[in-house]
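Long-time lurker, first post. I've been practising inverse folding by hand and with some scripts of my own, and I keep getting stuck on stretches where the structure tokens seem ambiguous. Below is the full token string for one chain I'm working on. Before anyone asks, I'm not after the true native sequence, just a reasonable design that respects the backbone. If someone could post their per-position residues I'd love to compare against what I wrote down in my notebook.
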């Protein structure tokens, strides 16, 4: 069941590969308290669950009724488990996320994929019947799809994992999921950085370095950025033809590196569109930095709650 007290504050947790952001969120979306802790990404699932519980306790206020978790990986909200994950969080696949956190906190827990939770903030409430295509391009490439105003979860919660679409530009390149030739292998931030290094032979430890070189006219940096952008735009354009979205949103750190990337993505997207969609263009997210925690806080009102044990639960 979902939360019984829709007007009570809820804890939203955004679990990423480097940090856990926590917020106590009122029913009207006001953030009442915030806290951040590092993610123990290499220490195993139990350590991550412990860190989530610490973050939740740091913001918990009087009357808090539930926790919503927006987490990396393929999350099945019905079972509350991580059905698949890359090595960004060691040992994360198979984790009983909802049950583990409910036991540690004594509060009911709802959970979903982090990108899907953030994407839900792009919908204008329960009366919005739009079809939404949402991509998040950062350390990896994630995504979400809403149809008739409802987020699609699909079998085992896998719907929306756009980074694992086949991409001609990534042919032969290894992907973080273990396959080859997926979009993430050419379009994610680390992939763009690695390609720039392969082309030019100059070391670069982060995407911003590549972006700075491109701004200075470096042809190898420019080529790596535009290839990743075009690959993303082509994939999204093809999906737009298949899904007929009313809105297409592209979020994440990679699109924020500047006009070189954004213009190449939009041009490739537009070139794929069938005539009825020719006026459609991607746009940046409107949710800002709080999108994931606000989306997480909304989960207990829309998804199944997983309750703590009836005995022995923390108070």
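-- Answer (accepted) --
I ran through it position by position. Result:
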């Amino acid at each position: 069941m979902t939360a019984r007290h829709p007007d009570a504050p809820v804890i939203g947790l955004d679990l990423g590969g480097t940090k856990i952001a926590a917020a106590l969120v009122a029913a009207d979306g006001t953030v009442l308290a915030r806290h951040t802790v590092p993610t123990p990404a290499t220490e195993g699932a139990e350590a991550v669950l412990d860190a989530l519980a610490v973050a939740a306790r740091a913001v918990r206020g009087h009357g808090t009724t539930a926790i919503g978790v927006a987490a990396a990986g393929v999350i099945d909200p019905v079972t509350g488990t991580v059905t698949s994950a890359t090595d960004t969080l060691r040992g994360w696949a198979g984790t009983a996320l909802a049950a583990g956190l409910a036991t540690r906190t004594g509060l009911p827990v709802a959970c979903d994929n982090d990108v899907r939770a953030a994407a839900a903030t792009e919908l204008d409430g329960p009366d919005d019947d739009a079809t939404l295509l949402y991509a998040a391009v950062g350390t990896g490439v994630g995504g979400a799809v809403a149809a008739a105003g409802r987020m699609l979860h699909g079998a085992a919660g896998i719907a929306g994992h756009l980074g694992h679409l086949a991409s001609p530009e990534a042919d032969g390149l290894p992907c973080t999921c273990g396959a080859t030739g997926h979009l993430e292998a050419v379009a994610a931030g680390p992939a763009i950085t690695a390609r720039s290094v392969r082309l030019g032979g100059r070391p670069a430890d982060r995407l911003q370095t590549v972006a700075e070189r491109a701004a200075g006219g470096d042809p190898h940096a420019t080529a790596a950025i535009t290839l990743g952008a075009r690959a993303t735009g082509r994939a999204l354009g093809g999906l737009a033809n298949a899904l007929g979205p009313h809105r297409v949103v592209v979020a994440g750190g990679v699109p924020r590196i500047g006009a070189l990337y954004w213009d190449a993505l939009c041009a490739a997207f537009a070139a794929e569109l069938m005539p009825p969609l020719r006026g459609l263009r991607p746009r940046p997210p409107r949710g800002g930095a709080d999108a994931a925690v606000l989306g997480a806080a909304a989960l207990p009102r829309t998804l199944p709650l997983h309750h703590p044990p009836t005995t022995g639960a923390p108070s």
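A couple of notes from the structure itself: The chain has nine helices and eleven strands. The mean pLDDT is 92. Happy to go over any region you disagree with.
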